Amino acid sequence: MSAATSEDRRRAWLQALLIVWVAFAVLAGSLIPAFSDQLIRLCGG
Amino acid sequence: MKRLLDYLVLPPTVSAFERSYLRRMNTIALWFFVAHIPFLAVVGWLNGTGALAAALAAAGGVAGPLLATKALRSCRQQSMVFGVTAMLMGALLVHFGRGMWTIEMHFYFFVALALLAVFANPMVVVVGAVTVAVHHFALWFISPQSVFNYDAPLSSVLVHAAFVVVESVAAVFVARSFFDNVIGLERIVEARTAELDARNREMSLVFEHVNQGLLTATPDGVLNTERSRAVDTWFGAPQPQDTLWSFFGRVDPRFSGWLQMGWDQVIDGLMPREVALDMLPKRLAAGERLFDAAWQVVERDGKLEQVLLMVSDVTERVRREEADLVQRELMEVFDKLSRGRTGFLEFFGEARAMVDSLRGEPQASDIEQRRVVHTLKGNCALFGFTSVARACHDVESLADEGSRPLTAEDRAMVIHAWEAAAARASRFLDEQRPLIELEERDVEELASAIDRGAAKPELQGLIDSWRHEPLRKRFERLGEQAKTLAQRLNKGEVRIETEGHDLRLPRERFAKVFSVLPHVVRNAVDHGLPAQSSGKDPWLRFSCVKNVDELVLSVADNGTGIDWDAVAAKARQRGLEPRSRTDLVEALFLDGLSTRNQATDVSGRGVGMSAVREACEALGGRVEVDSAPGGGTRVSLHIPLERHAS
């Protein structure tokens, strides 16, 4: 029972992370260019 | 709106096939997008937009589906994440590929949207379309140079959006069709399989419990595996590749042999199938049990596919019918016995002698044996022993059909039938107790002889004659036989006339003549008497006239008379050349000559008349036949007087 709960909890965290990723990819991902310029600079481009 | 939603959102049930398919597609898609990491790095390097940044951004794009494989249980939901990933990769490609190829990089979106249809889920396409729409509008505001390599107005974004919408609609349609017709097909097959399984279970239930043996065979006779349980219970389980005849050969070799002979005719199609099927055996014996076999062909487009055999256990029914027959026969025998004990006992003794003559190695020729069987048949029918008459008829038919002499088996069949019938009748018979049947007129006749002072020898002769049955009773029996036959043959009600019926003839001398008289009666009814439709009242006359030196026993009818042309034709077929009426009368007595082409159980074998002549000639007599077209026929047996009674 406790193993199942732990698994559920882990999955819930992962799902939350996925939602963040999707939000980023759909919305914040639109800001990639802004971030990418930073990224390029960080990468020494 | 609801219909649109129902179209876009798949039904909740996920089949095993769909799950397996999506797992495979999700894995392929993941590797496809992993391959984008080096690809985007190259694009970033070529365009001077930063290879490492492009690779890192692409890796971030792949993180989503990787995360989804752990976070989401549903394969469909995992697929939808690829909708976001695909568009994100498109955005990265346009961004890192910006410069002179910026617009060309947009082709990626259209390719990716189309590819998303492989997930067979419209929502994956919708997710992709929404993602790309949001990206474009947002970027156009925030960083237009990331999307367009010129100063594009909003209308340019809308044109792009319009193409995305058109393609998305098409991709949604393709995805849904894919789901319905390929993924869903599996579902349909599953449902159909389940339905077939249910029907198979129902059929098995029927096969397990039906009280009939059902089995099918290919045109080669090889048994199919499906059969009802009754087959195994009754005959044992067939072996693989068993044919109908090899299987039933272990149970009833006669059935099997007959079946194998008739099978080719069913298969080759030379004769109508119904006729060929009708020639297959219909009765099967397994130990003590009896079965009816019914045959049916299964054809497709006129071509024979299967032969169906339905076997029913008829043991009880047959036994019941046999018991009924035996019962009826006993009643008839009892009736005949009660009408005239003396005559019955005479018949019984004569019939037993005839049967005895068939025992052991035959002393007589085949034709003589046939006469015995034929005469036995006629007399047994006359005295109610129908089972013996039937056995005789069957034996005659078998020999005729095979154009062969009577065999030991044939004789055994007759003997067996007689012994069974005689054993049943013996309970009524008391042969050991000599009884004499007298009628009042017999006593009156004796009294009158005494009154007129008759001499002792005359009185002695009168009393001796009481040991013999009066002809009246014999004529009565023959009359009954004629009436029964006439009704069966649709000849109407026959009037019987008798003459000289008070005579009593000694059995020792006339036994053979009495036993052949039924042949004459059968011929008279079958060949002679007019059909009911002729409007003529049929009659038969039995007479016995005592002349000075001979006794004339005759049977006359008012029928159509003998067809002498037919007799002549039949005689010519036998290689004879009849020139006169005498020759034609001679031909009537030839063994095997009959004007009938087909023998029936009444007449037509050409045995009866020859037996009549043989019996008559054995007493030194002769047979005369008078017949004229339309004037009836008279068969007279002239027997010289010797020791006959009064």
Describe the structure.
- The complex is a heterodimer of chains A (45) and B (646).
- By secondary structure, chain A is an all-alpha fold.
- Helices cover 80% and strands 0% of the residues of chain A.
- Chain A is built from two helices and no strands.
- Chain A has helices at 2-26, 32-42.
- Chain A is elongated and about 45 Å long.
- By secondary structure, chain B is of the alpha+beta class.
- Chain B has 25 helices and ten strands.
- Chain B has helices spanning 2-8, 16-34, 36-47, 51-71, 75-96, 102-105, 107-115, 122-142, 154-209, 229-235, 244-249, 253-268, 273-278, 315-339, 341-357, 366-382, 386-401, 408-425, 440-451, 456-465, 471-488, 507-528, 564-573, 581-588, 608-618; strands at residues 213-217, 223-227, 283-286, 289-300, 303-313, 495-499, 539-546, 550-557, 622-627, 633-640.
- In chain B, the strands form two sheets. Chain B has a five-stranded antiparallel beta sheet with strand order 2-1-5-4-3. Chain B has a five-stranded mixed beta sheet with strand order 6-7-8-10-9, with helices on one face.
- Chain B is rod-shaped.
- The termini of chain B are far apart.
- The mean pLDDT of chain B is 85.
- The chains are: A mainly alpha (45), B alpha+beta (646).
- Chain A binds chain B through residues 11, 14-15, 17-18, 21-22, 25-27, 29-34, 36, 39-40, 43, 45, and chain B through 49-50, 52-53, 56-57, 61, 63-64, 67-68, 70-73, 81, 84-85, 87-88, 91-92, 95-96, 130-131, 134-135, 138-139, 142-143, 145-146.
Give keywords:
A: 45 residues, mainly alpha, 80% helix, 0% strand, B: 646 residues, alpha+beta
